[in-house]
Amino acid sequence: MTRLLTMIRIGLLGCGTVGGGVVQLLRTNAASLEARMGAPFELVRVLVLDPSVVTLKELDRSCLTTDAERVIGDPSIDVVIEVMGGVDPTRDYVGRAIAAGKQVVTANKALLARHGAELLDRAHEHGVDMAFEAAVGGGIPIIRVVRDALAGDTISSLSGIVNGTSNYILSRMQADGMPFEAALKEAKEKGYAEANPTLDVGGGDAAHKLVVLAMLAFGARLDGVSILTEGIDAVEPVDHSFADRFGFVVKLLAIAKEHGKKLELRVHPTLVDKDAPLAGVHGVLNAIAIEGRALGPCFLSGRGAGAHPTAVSVVGDLVDVAIAKRNGTAGQRTRAIRLAKRELLPAEDIESRYYFRFSVFDRPGVLAKITGALGQRGVSIEQMVQQGRGSGDVPVDVVILTHESKEADVQAALDVIGKSDFVAKPPRMIRVHG
Ligand code: HSE
Fold first, then answer.
1. Could you give the angle at which helices 407-418 and 366-376 cross, rounded to 10 degrees?
2. In CA terms, which of 64, 169, 299, 331 is 20 to 30 Å from 394?
3. Protein residue closest via CA to atom 4 of ligand 1
4. What SS3 class is residue 289?
């Protein structure tokens, strides 16, 4: 059924970086949006914690409220846009908006990683859409590609740079030799980092996004799963130099692969071949490389963080869900997302090539002990470098690249080497992509 909408009424939950970007885009592009929709978007109410701190000049201050019920419980509001972040009370607000029959747009990857399947079930039940393009890759239309454009294919794997802050920091460390803290400070000033930047540099934000991508790419019900997650905080400038010497760059990758019925999901710093498309993604840019069984490789890249790129995705979703509401097809697109339980591949079964950096005291026989411990576990060495010469208490770096090995074997060998009296500090391990 087609309903004549004389105006599309919007309620906004949150008005921080992304919310501000949405308000600005709705104002700047009002004419083109109205021409496309045949009716104007009207921002009716905006939920904020403290109206006194909202200074956005494009916003009519009479819209501001601190009472969520004035947004969710207002029957005149057609679309609720959630950009407040967090899981509580957001889960409740989004669930109630869905139950009230509203079309919902959310940018909240943490909420979706934890409760995405549950909220999608709820949206199915109430015949509404829940759209979430902005949850992954900022302005890159990756959700549409995986959900709609590749509907005729199945995906065997995907790898992505999905945290702009980490990529910014790694790029600055690699190209400009900038210290970690200074690069993080810059990323925060530019509005890329989360309120709690531990989520960025610790890999948690990328893990949330990976769960959302895997949910769509593999039809997997993954609410609250725990996946292997390592951040970039332990990567040192010397690792960038060694990576360069071996023909790699260091990137924080989110990786998903299908192994029969099992799914492999992991987020960690990764050595990426300098010639691979992902290696050329610098600064705050994000990128996702998809491998479709029929399509082959497909690569999308763009600005993955920041107010306006993310707001572009939110407003794109807003247009979609408003059109569905106008056309009487609300809920159809979301109903096409079918999820089933999938078992995860245990971390110890991961297979990869590995980079190790051992900081060792330079004594005769040390290399033999390291290679012996690796050999005993069947970890085969591809290349090895010792840089300089240690003396007395001053250790030296020995770096090893392995052939394809099993994570369980690598961890066991590292455990033995790490406990030896010739190592000055715990071994550094970085997995190699491919
Ligand atoms: N903090 C995130 C990032 C913002 O750096 O990518 C976008 O989710």
1. 150
2. 169
3. 305
4. strand
